[in-house]
Each structure stands twice: as structure tokens, then as C-alpha cells.
Amino acid sequence: xxxxxxxxxxxxxxxxxxxxxxxxxxxxxxxxxxxxxxxxxxxxxxxxxxxxxxxxxxxxxxxxxxxxxxxxxxxxxxxxxxxxxxxxxxxxxxxxxxxxxxxxxxxxxxxxxxxxxxxxxxxxxxxxxxxxxxxxxxxxxxxxxxxxxxxxxxxxxxxxxxxxxxxxxxxxxxxxxxxxxxxxxxxxxxxxxxxxxxxxxxxxxxxxxxxxxxxxxxxxxxxxxxxxxxxxxxxxxxxxxxxxxxxxxxxxxxxxxxxxxxxxxxxxxxxxxxxxxxxxxxxxxxxxxxxxxxxxxxxxxxxxxxxxxxxxxx
Length: 314
Ligand code: CO
Ligand code: CO
Fold this sequence. Notes:
By secondary structure, this protein is an alpha+beta fold. Helix content is 34%, strand content 25%. The strands form 2 sheets. The chain has a 7-stranded mixed sheet. Strands 1-2-3-6-4-5 form a 6-stranded mixed sheet, covered by helices on one side. It is globular. The structure holds cobalt (II) ion (2 copies).
């Protein structure tokens, strides 16, 4: 990491966003993400990409201030109305988050890509990193898993409309309510579940916090039809790579099948927050968030003292 004592969060901890001190306890939080379309509807893709980019600000306990578009588009090969719809989806999602997209940059490219640079702020006492989880903490997950499997099913024409609708609703839901519900609670660590999947992002949290985690596979929430799709062989390459990567750090109980292991490693887009906080605080959190959340937040396990594997899935 750069030798700059204004940098509170940089490359080192695999955290969600960069955090730099402005002055006193005022911190700036910044993140960037963009990717290729994962659903067929361009407006929905814009919404999902924006919600995904904003999520890293919420995962640090921050409030977004403004955003910039990052756009790649085959300007001579696709109708410009598609680009307009992608940008409208992003703009509407930004407005829902209470911010404006104030600029950006676009290039001509074979495959469309879209995302945001988001700048936010947080007071130092509200900053939540991924490195503060403690033994005994409950682990909460605020959105269902399986968006990687459903996105692959969409590409293969194997997803039905209920599955697509549920996945789009989940991916386009902002994590702002999940973050606001942490206010006033003694939250120890937070991250959001995206490309590395639940196991990958939990591994980062455990490593950064010098703890281990026990996760109850039967408690993991999934979007409708995900297991059936998985059993029919529908998996993104990223999910298999995730499982290969985390394998040496995870103890899988014998009763868990290869499919179960892949399900727990599924690469997510715009997933939920993964939150570590004391048990009593977790109960309060679930009462607050589950009044209004479109998908219930659930307790999926707890943090333990460090063991020879970072994660035990049972
Ligand atoms: Co993140
Ligand atoms: Co505490």
C-alpha cells in the first residue's frame, strides 16, 4: 500500500472500497465496478450494475455522494436506444440511492459493459471494515444466493420467468436499507457478497479478522429453482473457480455433496451484505431489517476462534 497515512483502507485487506481521510474524522469512500450484461433487458441491466457499484459504499457503512458512468458499447453494431435504456436504468437506481450521476466516460467496444465509479463519505466512528469480526459473533446474510447460476441459466435459455424476476429483483435491490439497519448496533465487520461468492468473501473477512467461521448450509437462502438448475449442470465458470480457490481453506462436512459445495461458492452479482455482530445485536438487526426487506435476512452461522481451516460448512 502507498505510504500515505491518510489512506485508512487500501489494497491490503481486500476490503470493499478505498477509504481516505479528508480532515478530522471525515472520510471519503470510493469504489468502481463494471461488467458485461447478465440479463437481457437493458434497463434492468443498468439498474443491477448501478446497485452493484453502490453496494461497496454501503458495505463500508458509508453514504454515497455522487457517481460517474463507465460505459463500453458497440456503437456501430447495436441500436443506440439500448445504450439509452442501460443509462436510464443506472440513473434511476442512482436517484433511488439519493444521488446523481454527474458525468462519466464511454468507449466503443465489441461487448457492452456498464458500471459506476461511486464516491461516498463516512464518519470514522461509522466506518465498518471487513477485519473486525470476533469469536461468538453471529453471521447475517441479507439477500438470497444463486444469481450466478440463474444468470448462466438465462444465457442458456433455461431460466423461467419467475426465476428471472426474482433474480432481477434481488440484484437490483439497493443495500442501503441493509446498511441503515446497522445504525446504532455494535457491528464488528461487514462486506458484500459479489464475484467471489459467499465462501470467498467470508474467507476474506475471516483472514482479515484472524478468526474462523462455522456456516450452517441448511440455513443458506437461495433464489427459486437454483438447486434444480445446479443439479442439471448449470454453473458459471466463476463458481467453479471460486470453489477451487477456497477449497483448501474450507472444511466441508461429509454429508455435503459436490452440488452443495458449488451452491455455497456461487459467484454473485449485487449480492447482499454479510455482517458479523454479537448475537443479541443480530436479533435486533433481523427484527429491524425484516420488517421491510423484499427478501428476508437470515443468520447463517457464527464466528469462532481461528482453526486450521478458516471456514467450516456443515
Ligand atoms: Co464488495
Ligand atoms: Co462489540
